[in-house]
Amino acid sequence: MKKLEARFRIVTPMFLGGADQKSDTVRPASVKGALRFWWRALNWSRCLEQKAGIEVEALRHLHDEEARLFGIAAGDDNGGQGIFLLQVSGQKIALADQPFKPLEGGQLYLLGQGLANYKSACLRNAIKEGGEFGVKLIFRPAAKEPDVKQVSDALFLFGLLGALGSRARHGMGSVALIEWNAEKITHTAQQYKEALTALLKNANAKTEPPFTAFSELSRIDVSSISADALKLLNTVGVEQQMYRSYGQGGMVNGSPSEFNFVDDHDLMYSMIKDTPKDAPKGVLKDTPKDAETDRAPRRVVFGLPHNYYLSSSVTKARPEVNYIPAGSDKKAGRRASPLLLHIHPVGEQFIAVHALLRAKFLPEQAKINISIKNPRSTVDISSAPDWQVLHDYLNRYVDKNIGETIHGGK
Questions:
Q1: Are residues 205 and 253 in the same domain?
Q2: CA separation (Å) from 196 to 128, 352, 355?
Q3: Mean pLDDT to the nearest integer, 99-128
Q4: Is residue 223 one of the residues assigned to a domain?
Q5: What is the pLDDT of residues 75-95, one digit of tens each?
Q6: When comparing pLDDT for 393 and 108, which is higher?
């Protein structure tokens, strides 16, 4: 039997857990789920090419390949095992009730509602940063070398861009490969870039994938660097909050607002037929009382749901932006952010890596829904996402000479 052993460092606090939401161990199911994700992302272009660009056939082929390599649940086409067994061993982890002490504004922003708030700080325990765990893959004797390489490449990519647990797309639970078949792995920033681009050299699909996957439309940036992983999280959180937030009273997290999305703010006030009384002069346009809502907020491209609190409105309205799948009878769906943040060690420092994996934003015939409970109002919108919003966010790091694009950028 062929075996592959790898070891990973936990770079940022990891919010894993079962039904009780208690993080206490790294489970094989969590690692295998992440491995499936990166395998799919890495192999979409290959499957699309093998099926002559016919998306439906490529999806079917990808599903069949995934089932053959990773296994399929019993009862689904009679079930079946994959070509390898996965074990997690050698865990050296410590737990923390509140991993960030004290919590800084940017860290709070990335944790988001559910994991933190501005009064109670972190609401869940976590596996502390600095821990380690091992992963062993034991391939079955009949496993073919190309199949072994596909799984191995996915595991290596997991060690370069991956994360586990809640807020994994926001930099939490980032993992870094530190050992590969008993060989120590230490990357300089340049070696990291070279290793990553080598893995992605065949991710050349020219159209938007139907799910989160690499293509010619993907972009990867090293956005910032720091000697402290948690401070780097805060730096990125502050940058994102400053870019996205309108703020209150002209301020965001104690700094003057940039007012990058005044049109989104106006749109929400048009929904409630109101104009705030304390809007900064010269920034917020007068909102017509009979304004028609015919577009979604531009910031929905960061993911859904996307919520507002209109503190200056008479009713203190809280508009919610979701999407409604076709035929769901108004049951809201979620759309994970296509922008992934990963924190990775390079020598004695850490880099913040953003991966923009552009894909079809919503399922066919799905609608973006804006709803307000008080006053009650709702509207469904067919709207294409503005991908330039995410490129402009990444460009702010490049423009400040603290970031660079290392892959893609279209």
A1: no
A2: 26, 14, 11
A3: 79
A4: no
A5: 444 445 799 999 999 999 998
A6: 393
List, in sequence order, every beta strand (DSSP E) within 273-348: 306-307, 320-324, 339-346
Pairing of strands 80-81, 116-117: unpaired
| pLDDT value for 74 | 46
Are residues 252 and 201 part of one domain?
A: no
Taking the whole predicted model, whether its pTM rises above 0.85 is answered as yes
Are the beta carbons of 329 and 198 closer than 8 angstroms? no
Q: Count the alpha carbons within 13 Å of 302 in the hemisphere toward its beta carbon.
A: 19
Amino acid 2: pLDDT: 92
- Domain identity same for 196 and 331: no
For the record, the structure tokens of 396 come out as: 């702010």
Domain count, the chain: 2
CB atoms within 10 A of CB 220: 25
Residue 47 domain boundaries: 3-217
d(CA 84, CA 1): 10
**Which of 114, 230, 220, 213 has its CA nearest to residue 165?**
114
Q: Which helix (H) or strand (E) holds 177?
A: strand 175-180
Tens of pLDDT, residue by residue over 127-163, are 999 999 999 999 999 999 999 999 999 999 999 999 9
Q: Say whether both 73 and 196 belong to one domain.
A: yes
